[in-house]
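Hi team,

Filling in the usual template for the complex we talked about on Friday. All components are listed, including any nucleic acid strands or ligand strings, so the model treats them as one assembly.

SUBMITTER: L.P.
PURPOSE: interface mapping
COMPONENTS: two
RESIDUES: 360
SEQUENCES:
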Amino acid sequence: MWRRCLCLRDRWRRLLNQPSGGPTAIVRTGANIPSLSRAYAPPAGGFEINLDHRKLKTPQAKLFTVPSEALAIAVATEWDCQQDTIKFYTMHLTTLCNTSLDNPTQRNKDQLIRAAVKFLDTDTIWYGVEIGSSTSIMGPNIPDRTREVLVSHLASYSMWALQGIEFVVSQLKSMVLTLGLIDLRLTVEQAVLLSRLEEEYQIQKWGNVEWAHDYELQELRARTAAGALFVHLCSESTTIRHKLLQD
Amino acid sequence: MAALGSPARTLRGLLRELRYMNAATGRSYRDTAAYRYLVKAFRAHRVTSEKLCRAQHELHFQAATYLCLLRSVRKHVALHQEFHGKGERSVEESAGLVGLKLPQQPGGKGWEP
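RESULT (copied from the run log):
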């Protein structure tokens, strides 16, 4: 407000309109509202985030734009709950967006898909007959057709969604669980539980150590939830059609 | 197999998480953009004409995932604070562990200016 006062040419009016406290400095450690760079035209502009009136940038100094409003609000909320120190290890969505925007390892789609499919060979959770089960330590032979089907299915996702998928696969160590999560068949808690079956069994047998087991459990849940949410938000489009009630 | 529960429960959980997050900062949680967006989204998508609406289930799933994210981040930070956040002991505390006490030197140590 005091800035506006300085623009007034009339000196007397400036003195009269000066706020009693003098110029107020906004000291807010947190972030604020995401501002829409272009309203209602998401694919063209994307949504940006303002931290205390400055635009958020990625680690490689690119402008931070996301295609989905919900994602932008979630990232802004992440920044908002930082207080004195910024704990980057809690800001999973921000990290995922930064990775997608920067692509620091310069990977293209095929490399991402191949990295994700590698986990199929060592999947310890089996759902269907087409993968088969194995009792030896080497793991089953995945038929090539299954692999091709999987690769083509993954190729249908966008680059951003693939980053998210690869992230979730590397957290859960299982391709099957990730697909179940993305297809809405499993909740995050269920997927994490299935991924940690061995550990859960041992915990039930020998007891739970809070500072190790619970710590890892919550961290795994947080990362998996962030990855799943990221994939869903990056591969959706929303339309609302209002229907009038017939009376 | 996805046992999501009712949307009202998910919304309540989300609002509770927002409340916890904004309790530390001064502002009320109702001012946040997240609150406004969530309430608007839940209200808008409450009613559809279809009996079995996959899109509604999808949105509820996303909300439940976000709830899981907020909850687990909060618990993770709390666990970290409690068990791994202490840092190193100070010199006085370390001396006290073995029963020694640092001497009082009102003039400062010899090599300090």
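MY TAKE: Residues 54-84 of chain B form the longest helix (31 residues). The mean pLDDT of chain B is 83.

Thanks, L.
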